[in-house]
Design brief:
Elements lengths: L13 H13 L3 H11 L5 H15 L2 E2 L2 E2 L3 H7 L5 H15 L1 H16 L10 H9 L7 H17 L3 E5 L7 E5 L6 H15 L3 E3 H6 L2 H5 L4 H13 L3 E6 L2 E6 L4 H11 L1
Antiparallel strand pairs: 1-2, 3-4, 5-7, 6-7
Helix pairs in contact: 1-4, 5-9, 9-12, 9-13
Length: 268
């Protein structure tokens, strides 16, 4: 039995998220940031704009004493030379870090569909989502249950992990087909370094990284692509491999690997 979570009813707009995260590196005081954010957001409803700022602050920003902390994630999102595709993948990673229910849905629903050879057609049926959510959600209504399901499918489609197709003959409703996702390798490095840092690891096996790591699951990559991302990091002198017996081990280089990778992403 997994963790229990609240329902999800607030959507994330990627462009708005990038704009508001960037603004947090320019205006450090939360109250002043919110005032400017409310001015910049295009929605006519003030309540809707307030809801957006709360969601972005809670999911993507770190605050201490009513002041934003300019950590590596926000720093990269605000960096003008970081490409839009890479920023999008960094947003995906942080969204999943702050929304573990969706990360678990990738692990428990999406990846099993992609990896099972017993499934002739890999469509994820509504019943698959419902079975998963029934074991994960705390108290909910029929409405918030269905909104949570729609939140997950909409956001995984938005980030390219699901493909949404219309149902023939119906004006509403969609079918969802999962895909392995190939993120920018640098986004994979960034979140793998974050995972290493938070877990206190100095090294992990290549097999673990490419099959079971939080990062591999979050980006819904194939094992082949995860190995490719690690090899690219080796070529960039950010990771090194060695063997423990017959098992290949991956070690991140430097006293502060996350900072090293952040600088490599920013400056190339």
């Amino acid at each position: 039995m997994g963790m229990k979570y609240g329902t999800l009813t607030r959507s994330i707009d990627i462009d708005e998220a990038i704009m508001l995260i960037t603004l947090s590196t320019e205006i450090k005081k939360v109250s002043e940031w919110q005032e400017e954010a409310l001015y910049r957001l295009p929605q006519s409803s003030r309540n809707r704009r307030l809801s957006i700022t709360r969601t972005i602050r809670n999911k993507f920003l770190e605050v201490e004493n009513d002041t934003f902390v300019d950590g590596p994630f926000a720093h990269l999102i605000a960096a003008p030379l970081v490409e839009p595709r890479l920023k999008r993948d960094l947003i995906l990673g942080q969204y999943l870090r702050s929304t573990p229910l969706v990360w678990e849905s990738i692990r428990e629903v999406v990846l099993p569909h992609l990896e099972s050879t017993a499934i002739d057609e890999n469509e994820v049926q509504q019943n698959d989502w419902d079975t998963f959510l029934e074991t994960r959600l705390v108290e909910h209504t029929e409405t918030t249950f269905s909104r949570t399901r729609r939140h997950i499918t909409a956001h995984l489609s938005k980030f390219g992990i699901l493909e949404a197709q219309p149902i023939p003959g119906r004006n509403i409703g969609k079918r969802f087909f999962p895909h392995f996702y190939d993120p920018d390798p640098r986004a994979f490095w960034f979140y793998l370094a974050t995972e290493f840092s938070e877990q206190g690891w100095t090294s992990r096996s290549l097999a673990y990284i490419t099959k079971q790591s939080w990062t591999r699951i979050a980006f819904c990559t194939s094992e082949t692509y995860a190995r490719y991302a690690v090899e690219e990091a080796e070529r960039s002198a950010l990771m090194v491999t060695n063997f423990f017996g017959s098992e290949k081990q991956i070690t991140l280089r430097g006293p502060d690997p996350l900072q090293r990778i952040t600088e490599a992403i920013q400056y190339g």
